[in-house]
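Our preliminary data section would be incomplete without showing what the modeling component actually yields. Below, a chain of 226 amino acids is followed by its predicted structure, encoded as tokens that our downstream tools consume directly.
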Amino acid sequence: MQAEAGTPLKTRGTPRRRIIVLCAVAVFVLVADIITKTLVVAHLRPGEPVHVIGTVLEFNLLRNPGAAFSVGTGDTIVFTAIALAVIIYIARTARRLRSTAWAITLGLLLGGACGNLTDRIFRSPGLFRGEVVDFIEVTRYWPVFNLADSAIVCGGILTVLLALLGYHLDGTHGDQTAVEQGGAVASDGPVAPTSEAPSVAPTSEAPPSEAPPSTSGKSDMSEADR
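Predicted structure:
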């Protein structure tokens, strides 16, 4: 239906569905990260790698007090604060989220941040200083990482791509605004038929005038009387 005059047009999609997608991706990443780390800690020992594909892919248990890929090993508390800031930012941003691509992207970032933050909170040596469990080693020239790190990297790559391609959080693309897009969607719908009856144009024809009575009869009678 066409939007009435003075009524704000609706933007495409609703944030609720996108928030569900975001949460589903984040929960999937978090659960997968926790399960894999639990299995690795239970079955692997540090310094005893398991060769999955020769030396190309190995599972090698490593305790990491730093960030992803063993960066900044002496700044555990700093990276804990950064992870908390990322989680808070994504939670605030989700309220205006109307893009499925951005929902998946933020879900990967949120799940990865929560996965590593879980290690920093619950693992030794202490609260917010816990060491992150890394175990995936791709060749011996690449730092050891985990599933949470992979999700963060994938989310970062998608963030750059979406920004370069001009896709926005509110579902618009390029220079298009949410109001313009909402107007395009609203105008695509069927137009409701109006209930107004067709008006009949008034005719300009005047009713026929009656002819005045004839007086010829009276004149004949008066002549006869004479």
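Residues 1-11, 184-188, 217-226 have pLDDT under 50 and may be disordered. The two ends are 87 Å apart (CA to CA). Preliminary results of this kind motivate Aim 1 of the renewal.
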